[in-house]
Amino acid sequence: MGVLTDFNERIADVQAREHVRRVTRQSGSSFYWAMRRLDHERRDAMYAVYAFCREADDIADDTAPTGNKIVRLQDYRREVALIYGDGAKTPTGRALQGIIDIYDLDKRDMDAVIDGMMTDVAETVRITDMEDLRLYMDRVACSVGRLSNRIFGIEEPYRTNLATTLGEALQLTNILRDLDEDAARDRMYLPCTLLRAHGIDEGEPAQVLRHPKLDGVCTELAEMADAQFTTARELLAQVPPSQARPATMMLEAYNIILAKLQKRGWQFPRKPVAPNILERLRVIVRYGI
């Protein structure tokens, strides 16, 4: 490799790292503060993983035509292949390329994220049953946990089990928090079999979310999330604190959201909930230091 080529490669790598830092910082996500508790190298690695997931999610949530979004996600999938093959082209891909061998990141988990976004770009999203829901959660949440836990340094058997339990708890909380926002996009993540079990037959999200028996469905899913949060805490207690800290911060931040949702209830109209500044600071101070 010539001197000029080597110099350009180093500049491109620096730009890639700055890109994923900027994407993560500007996202406003609770994940940002959890990642800040990592050492420099692991923090930059997590920024790369987060930027990858954020950019894929932004494609799925774009207002562009469905066909356009599918093409862009297919391009993103090809970029994943290049990360593990001949060389990434995008800044986020380059940032990931520098860490996949260091942390032994599994390509199947990155592909799973794209699979999950492919579900979200459909004109209409309906979840058939609990098996279907668990597959969706594995793709959009647990796969991210598997990638993240490798970077945190969490070993098996805790790494995979924690990714599953905490991933499902976080995603169930997201689903319950975003009922109305998803319905506006004709997305319904409450399983059809669970709706029918509670006496709800309407197929349109707007009708489902105004049904008087919605409480039973949401309460059941909230209890599932509670149980997964409890199991995740038990697993984290077996992990060295330095490795457990980011996941613990995420768990506690989202547990606040779930508790607020349970206190608010599920009947229409539903006010949005989120941790306030004091609650966020309490999580950072208690679990991040």
Keywords:
about 290 residues, mainly alpha, Farnesyl Diphosphate Synthase, 2 domains, two-stranded parallel sheet, 14 helices, about 75% helix, disordered N terminus
Indicate the topology.
Blueprint: H1 3-27, H2 30-35, H3 40-61, H4 66-83, H5 91-97, H6 107-120, E1 125-126, H7 130-152, H8 158-177, H9 179-184, E2 187-188, H10 192-197, H11 205-208, H12 214-236, H13 241-264, H14 277-288
Parallel strand pairs: 1-2
Helix pairs in contact: 1-3, 1-5, 3-5, 3-6, 3-7, 4-5, 4-6, 6-7, 7-8, 8-12, 8-13, 12-13, 13-14
Short description:
Helices cover 73% and strands 1% of the residues.
Describe this structure in words.
The protein is mainly alpha-helical. It folds into two domains: 1-121, Farnesyl Diphosphate Synthase (Orthogonal Bundle); 124-289, Orthogonal Bundle (Farnesyl Diphosphate Synthase). The chain contains 14 helices and two strands. It has helices spanning 3-27, 30-35, 40-61, 66-83, 91-97, 107-120, 130-152, 158-177, 179-184, 192-197, 205-208, 214-236, 241-264, 277-288; strands at residues 125-126, 187-188. A two-stranded parallel ribbon has the order 1-2. Helix 3 packs antiparallel against helix 7. The relative contact order is 0.10. Residues 3-8 have low confidence and may be disordered.
